[in-house]
Amino acid sequence: MRHTYHDVEFCATRVALSLLAGKWKPILFFHLFAGPRRFSELWRDIPRVSKKVLLEQLRQLEAAGLVERTVHNGFPPEVTYQLSAKGAELGPILRRLDEWAVKHIEGVVQIS
Amino acid sequence: MRHTYHDVEFCATRVALSLLAGKWKPILFFHLFAGPRRFSELWRDIPRVSKKVLLEQLRQLEAAGLVERTVHNGFPPEVTYQLSAKGAELGPILRRLDEWAVKHIEGVVQIS
């Protein structure tokens, strides 16, 4: 069945890529694949991102259902972020993409 | 080994995603996965893309080594585009991403 114009807008791959692309999201995913992280840990481990930008990126990922935010009661209360089940499913795909890029794109680095 | 700042710039996944993201590249890949295509075929099959934008997208993919351009002698001479070996390796990865998106993102369509 031939698809009409609106499919370009809603092409699954395009929408998925738009959720992942950008300067900070790939490296955010990388850190969150390691498990739940406090905001302060993410801010420390991702060089040169401002707190404002980091918060905005996390909110976008949360809105897309890829990240979950948990508030832990205590004094002061603590907030951790972790990948949702949906977000975690992207792990193997992004790893394959990372391997492809390391194999084929000069000068890139595999963040270990 | 902890990576320093410049790695964010050269993070393999980030660079790969930047090559693939955008309005037209995912659907271009979709069509080129089916085999070599003439410019006129691509322009016909991708609704509402202008010739100028299509040409620019193909040039970017060619510059990234993901697409090869072949000029066939004849009258008039014909130009076809096809994925390079490097570009074709992205097929399974983009297919997995497409499946993930169809499963998890409401309203997207799998272009068949």
From TrEMBL, chains A, B:
Stored InterPro entries: HTH_HxlR, WH-like_DNA-bd_sf, WH_DNA-bd_sf
Protein name in the entry: Transcriptional regulator
Provide the alphabetized UniProt keywords: DNA-binding, Transcription, Transcription regulation
Q: Which Gene Ontology molecular function entries are recorded, alphabetically? A: DNA binding
Residue span(s) of domain HTH hxlR-type: 11-109
Q: Does the keyword Transmembrane apply?
A: no
Q: What superkingdom heads the lineage?
A: Bacteria
Species of provenance: Hymenobacter aquaticus
Q: According to its UniProt record, what is one Pfam family this protein matches?
A: HxlR
PROSITE patterns, A to Z: HTH_HXLR
